[in-house]
């Protein structure tokens, strides 16, 4: 498989990927002639770049008679995302401070306060089902945090 970074380094291939992304979001395919018309570049140029994109598995092709219909396969781009996201999110402060407020807006102790201890001074233990649910929630929160970082980084790139 070709180096994915080299594949997307070419501006024409990035333009083709953008066209394919628009179709992908509408769950449809596009023909070579439609790409040619949309980008206003020659058919041989589009075909040459589509071959590179096919070899890198960034696009799939469906043949119907003489016609070829292309679709985006975003999966190989995940490797780029995995590489780039740590750089884009460097310096983001992701610490979240939670305050518990009463109905009138006064700060009140939260679950981590002394209320979490029994009279004997021992910490209460969650039942097994609740602990498993809390762990799943923690993992979901971590995935959500990473997704938010990714979206913020993408938003910053567009500015």
Can you tell me about this structure?
- This protein is 53% helix and 11% strand.
- By secondary structure, it is mainly alpha-helical.
- A 3-stranded antiparallel β-sheet has the order 1-3-2. It has a two-stranded antiparallel ribbon with strand order 4-5.
- The chain starts with a helix and ends with a helix.
- 9% of the residues are buried.
- Residues 113-119 have low confidence and may be disordered.
In terms of topology, how is this protein built?
Layout: H1 4-8, H2 11-25, E1 30-31, H3 32-39, H4 43-55, E2 59-64, E3 67-72, H5 77-88, E4 100-101, E5 107-108, H6 128-158
Antiparallel strand pairs: 1-3, 2-3, 4-5
The stretches of 5 or more residues where confidence is low (pLDDT under 50) are 113-119
What is the spatial order of strands in the main beta sheet? Answer: 1-3-2
Give helix % range: 40-55%
**Morphology:** elongated
Task: Output mean pLDDT.
Answer: 81
The helix-and-strand class reads mainly alpha
How many whole angstroms does the radius of gyration measure? 25 Å
**Count of DSSP strands:** 5
Main beta-sheet annotation = 3 strands, antiparallel
Condensed summary:
The chain has helices at residues 4-8, 11-25, 32-39, 43-55, 77-88, 128-158; strands spanning 30-31, 59-64, 67-72, 100-101, 107-108. It is mainly alpha-helical and 159 residues long.
Provide key terms for this protein.
159 residues; mainly alpha; two-stranded antiparallel sheet; 6 helices; 5 strands; 53% helix
